[in-house]
Amino acid sequence: MALFRYKALSAAGETLAGSMEAARAEDVVARLQEQGHLPVEVVDGTGGGAESGLAALFRAKPLDEAAVLQFTQQLATLLGAGQPLDRALGHLVELPERAEGRRVIERIRDTVRGGLPLSAALEQQHGLFPRLYVSLVRAGEAGGGLQPALARLADHLERSAALRAQVISALVYPLLLLAMVAAVCVLLLAFVVPQFDDLLRSAEVALPWYTEIVLAVGRLLRAWGLPLFVAGTFLLLLLLRHLRQPEPRAAFDAWLLDRPRFGDFMARFETARLARTLGTLLGNGVPLLVALGIARQSIGNRVLGLAVESATEAVKAGQGLGAALARSKRFPRLAVQMVQVGEESGELGGMLLKVADTFDAETRRALERALAALVPLVTLLMAGLVGIVILAVLVPIYQLTSSAGVL
Fold first, then answer.
1. CA 309, 311, 313 angle in degrees (round to 5)?
2. CB of 332 within 8 A of CB of 268?
3. In CATH terms, are 65-155 and 156-407 the same topology?
């Protein structure tokens, strides 16, 4: 998903400007038209200059994912208790802690009181609520079951957030260990090793090759550490910017999927997200082709996203969803078989949710196993690197003192 900046004219003639996440600029145009606006300009939001990039980096959303989840849960609870929609929204105005979030809910409440449905009010928040969210609400309104739709949506958001949080938390500790390894090695090489450089160079002792390497790296970091850090950071930012372009991102995603273990983990993780999104949409009465178009945007891997687009075209031509997904050979075979069983039994929505539960559980087990193996490996790496640096200094000193007759 890329970020696009747009300008549009509302039905009342007002000029609207904002940003929206979508796969393509055409999706932004279509979404604006669905909202009753006239698109004037849609440009890539990633290329708006340094100021816009920094602003986007540090600007907080009026409602973050946790706040949207809380809003959905509370609104479903109030509607389930028999509260009218406008009154329930009025109760939720003070729910967000930030003033910007309260203003968003106020605008939604005022739009609903003006006679528009909740889905239209959500669409007018300039991409703050994802297309999946709006589509589920619209389907619930059309079927006369807004409260059950919101309850299912809240469950979907909660499960997705839980899986994402587990992935992030599983990576935090190994990343912290790696950062400690890098920091300890830099401190030893840049500040400790140079203290012995002159002593070892002035001694008439042949230095081991690994000592020569360690001393050379220490001198390099001592003299050029800050410029190297700045240059490395700049190159990393350039690489990240390059990977946001469609073709490099697709090549990188394909490379990730081809990795023996990580690729399998990523395919299962993305399959769980796709299946849960599709199952939730179908369960709320959204047609399959529309659901596929929405679920495509929930996939982070571009290669898998293109595979879903190809499957969508195959479904339009009359092919079954399971067979269409199997053509790409990118999705797990078990998931494809379960989808085919769901199609044959007429319970595709429920089977997709079972696929999501199955692969969520497999993803969690894979994370636990990876974390159990990764932490000792990183610890050994840290001990090994520190040991090499220490030995590179102590061995020549031992040789020097031995030759001097001290030992």
1. 75
2. yes
3. yes
Give 302-350 as a DSSP string: HHHHHHHHHHHHHHHTT--HHHHHHHHT-S-HHHHHHHHHHHHHT-HHH
Amino acid letter, residue 58: F
Pairing of strands 38-44, 15-22: unpaired
**Length of the chain in terms of residues written:** 407
Rounded Cα–Cα distance for residues 397 and 406 (Å):
11
Query: What confidence tens digit (pLDDT) does each residue in 59-100 have?
Result: 567 778 888 888 888 998 998 888 888 888 888 888 887 788
Q: Would you say 23 and 1 are in contact if contact means Cβ atoms under 8 Å apart?
A: yes
pTM score of the predicted model: 0.66
Q: Is 363 exposed, middle or buried (0-12, 13-18, 19+ CB in 10 A)?
A: buried
Contact 352, 341 (CB under 8 A): no
The CATH H-level (homologous superfamily) assignment of domain 156-407 is Type II secretion system (T2SS), domain F (1.20.81.30)
Q: Give the residue extent of every domain in the chain.
A: 2-58, 65-155, 156-407
**Banded model confidence at residue 351, pLDDT cuts 50, 70, 90:** very high
CATH topology of domain 65-155: Receptor-associated Protein (1.20.81)
Residue whose C-alpha is closest to residue 44's, from 57, 28, 60: 28
Helix/strand number for the chain, H first, E second: 17, 3
Distance CA 212, CA 39 (A): 64
- DSSP, collapsed to helix, strand or coil, labels residue 38 as strand
